[in-house]
Predict the 3D structure of the following.
Amino acid sequence: MPAVKGARRNHGLVPVNFRRKKARGFLALSKEGIRGVVEAFASAARRALDAGFQVLEIHSAHGYLIHEFYSPLSNQRTDEYGGSFENRTRLAREIVSAIRRQWPERLPLFIRISATDWKEGGWDLDQSVELVKQLAPLGVDLVDCSSAGLVPDQKIIAGPGFQVPFSERIRRDTGVMTATVGLIETKEQVAEILAKNRADLVLMAREFLRDPYWPLRAARELGYKISWPAQYLRAAPPDSPARKPLDVETLKAKGMN
Ligand SMILES: Cc1cc2nc3c(=O)[nH]c(=O)nc-3n(C[C@H](O)[C@H](O)[C@H](O)COP(=O)(O)O)c2cc1C
């Protein structure tokens, strides 16, 4: 693809640079480029399988390429990848289908979406529900419901468990399993979310940075037996099993990868 004079050599879906608010500096992806992206996702899935991963999550949130395509705020294309909902979500469907041809049916496929752009006129929860209805029959098993990350003037209303309503609604309206994430820090929060069927899985990030052994501590406080690193067994509750490393060769020999 020829370089545009003065352009940063980034490829996006449309020639928009949000920071400069001017339609210059980026090259719109050609159809050939889009085909290449879809193939690259599929070959990455194949490599993940060969490396022994058991779960795959497609990143389609936080302003990454698939999100840029499905949001009307960033997608200003005029071809079959832009305009209508059907067109803006085409890339997501193509990527899921291509990955599923590489990633076996018996292994779970997750997708992280931004359930809303937190901006008027942008991507929202209703569209997320429709997208998930389309992706489920193509082989998505679980939707990881995050939000935002596309535009600088988003207005996020954050607080404890602030994204739980997204996973709850998507789960309820589509019948697809969901994960929730964002400002979930205590085992009581996790238990309530799961008990009230507001998500099938709770994901945590920053609390694990503050307290990397959070799962071990929570399990101990709840009297729930889980495996510990073998070298830490002397600190574990009595009869805790030792954690076993994943043995890729054994999995391969059993045909499980
Ligand atoms: C250091 C750090 C790095 C992160 N990197 C990513 C990332 O690469 N991709 C992503 O989707 N989210 C990333 N996140 C966001 C987390 O996945 C998660 O959605 C967010 O932190 C909210 O959950 P929490 O309140 O439990 O931290 C990152 C968060 C932190 C703190």
